[in-house]
UniProtKB/TrEMBL annotation:
It comes from Pacificimonas pallii. Keywords: Amino-acid biosynthesis, ATP-binding, Kinase, Lysine biosynthesis, Nucleotide-binding, Transferase. Pathway: Amino-acid biosynthesis; L-methionine biosynthesis via de novo pathway; L-homoserine from L-aspartate: step 1/3; Amino-acid biosynthesis; L-threonine biosynthesis; L-threonine from L-aspartate: step 1/5; Amino-acid biosynthesis; L-lysine biosynthesis via DAP pathway; (S)-tetrahydrodipicolinate from L-aspartate: step 1/4. The keyword Calcium does not apply. PANTHER family: ASPARTATE KINASE, ASPARTOKINASE. It catalyses: L-aspartate + ATP = 4-phospho-L-aspartate + ADP. Residues 268-352 form the ACT domain. The keyword Transferase applies. Belongs to the aspartokinase family. This is Aspartokinase.
Length: 414
């Protein structure tokens, strides 16, 4: 007997037919003698609908009430799944975020998990009853409902698995596993049998939405056995593993493991900034104080009169705030003009193979250059290279790089 956590995403919960199909998977695990806790997302599209209600109600709404609204989608699916399981002869009950409770910080709309009480739910599982748990939601110390940020049900599932000391955490979704890139953009993407936590973390953080970044972080820290697999088809999925478990040949043969993109950033440019000590600090200090995440930064070489352009990226949603902050410090910094471009996309290649190989960046720049795709800025880490390009080229660029690194599945339809 094993104790397992199964997580079903929005597409796997989208309507009763899909809920029945997911419930059948739960029943299979129960029939095999396993204890099962199931973490669910809201029906696909439901969270967007609820978010829009809040925005329409008031653009500057109270985030604690936003959480009350947007967390409700998961309550519906957790209850429906329990009803469907019962109708199949499987004993089940729901455990809502506040009932567990799953404790979080009070950062409404982006709360962080602090821990979870397990006594009640462990008793449920030990008595052979399936627990259905709404993902995405938690409870503050003060007793208010929180949500964990978009895509947060993955993180709920990993937290539940860690707290329950589950033997594994299976993330069921609408693709067959983790691919070399988004299979919806590149039909020749290949499914990975295994990927390291480190690589998955980088891929998730640069835009591969198949797992929420924090779920990977938590699984890595808490040693949760994590798998991504399809709720639609009975095919092997992808194991997320420690680097030692990946096998030598994987690392040596494969320079690049995956490619991801995101359209969530905007580029801000300040012209004619004085090239003197402290001026760059003066730009970024107010942004840091207001918790704006700055990602890529480039500073050009100063011209003859000691002035230079500084370009950096920030989340697109923060642009209005950032422009205000920069306007407020214009005199202090002494720049000439501030402008932004939100028609950009960040493209990233990730692979542990980069640690021991050279030429990865050259391949990237050459492949993009040959297609006439201009690179605006570049950042790198030990296992990742990211470039900023014009948004209109992003899908082409992903396909070009996928071929350039030899990742195409030649048997798949082009
Ligand atoms: P769920 O609702 O199950 O949480 P998500 O929509 O959050 O599902 O994540 C699954 C989606 O992630 C897929 O439909 C796919 O388009 C996208 N995706 C992006 N990059 C990848 C990748 N490298 N491998 C697999 N899926 C990816
Ligand atoms: N329903 C939430 C969202 O759409 C959480 C999740 O599905 O993971 O972001
Ligand atoms: Mg998701």
């Amino acid at each position: 007997m094993a104790r397992i956590v199964m997580k079903f995403g929005g597409t796997s919960m989208a309507g009763l037919e899909r809920i029945r199909a997911s419930a059948a998977r739960v029943k299979r695990e129960v029939d095999a003698g396993n204890q099962v806790a199931v973490v669910v997302s809201a029906m696909a599209g439901e969270t967007d609908r609820l978010v829009n209600f809040c925005r329409e109600a008031s653009p500057l709404h109270d985030n604690s009430e936003y959480d009350v609204v947007v967390s409700s989608g998961e309550q519906v699916t957790a209850g429906l799944l329990a009803i469907v399981l019962q109708s199949m002869g499987v004993a089940a009950r729901s455990w809502l975020g506040w009932q567990l409770p799953l404790h979080t910080s009070a950062t409404h709309s982006a709360a962080r998990i602090r821990g979870m009480d397990t006594d009640g739910i462990a008793e449920t599982l030990d008595s052979g009853v399936v627990a259905t748990i709404p993902g995405f939601q938690g409870l503050t110390e003060g007793g208010r409902i929180t949500t964990l940020g978009r895509g947060g049900s993955d993180t709920s599932a990993v937290a539940v698995a860690a707290a329950l000391k589950a033997d594994r955490c299976d993330i069921y979704t609408d693709v067959d596993g983790v691919y070399t890139t988004d299979p919806r953009i590149v039909p020749r993407a290949r499914k990975l049998e295994k990927i390291t936590f480190e690589e998955m973390l980088e891929l998730a953080s640069v835009g591969a939405k198949v797992l929420q970044t924090r779920s990977v972080e938590l699984a890595m820290k808490q040693h949760v056995k994590l798998r991504v697999l399809s709720s639609f088809r009975d095919v092997p999925g992808t194991d997320i593993v420690a680097e030692e478990e990946i096998g030598e040949h994987f690392v040596e043969d494969q320079l690049i493991t995956g490619i991801a993109y995101n359209r969530a950033e905007a580029e801000v440019t300040l012209t004619r900034v004085a090239d003197k000590p402290g001026s760059v600090a003066a730009i970024f200090k107010p942004l840091a104080a207001n918790e704006v995440n700055v990602d890529m930064i480039i500073q050009n070489i100063a011209d003859a009169d000691g002035r230079t352009d500084v370009t950096f990226t920030v989340p697109r949603t923060e642009v209005p705030r950032v422009m205000d902050m920069l306007a407020a410090v214009q005199d202090e910094i002494g720049y000439e003009s501030a402008s932004y471009n939100d028609r950009v996309a960040k493209l990233s290649v990730v692979g542990v193979g980069m640690k021991s190989h050279t030429g990865v960046a050259a391949t990237m720049f050459t492949a993009l250059g040959e297609r006439g795709i201009n690179i605006d800025s570049i950042t790198t880490s030990e296992i990742k290279i990211s470039v900023l390009i014009a948004e209109e080229y992003v899908e082409l660029a992903v396909r070009v790089l996928h071929s350039a690194y030899g990742l195409d599945d030649e048997e798949a339809a082009a």
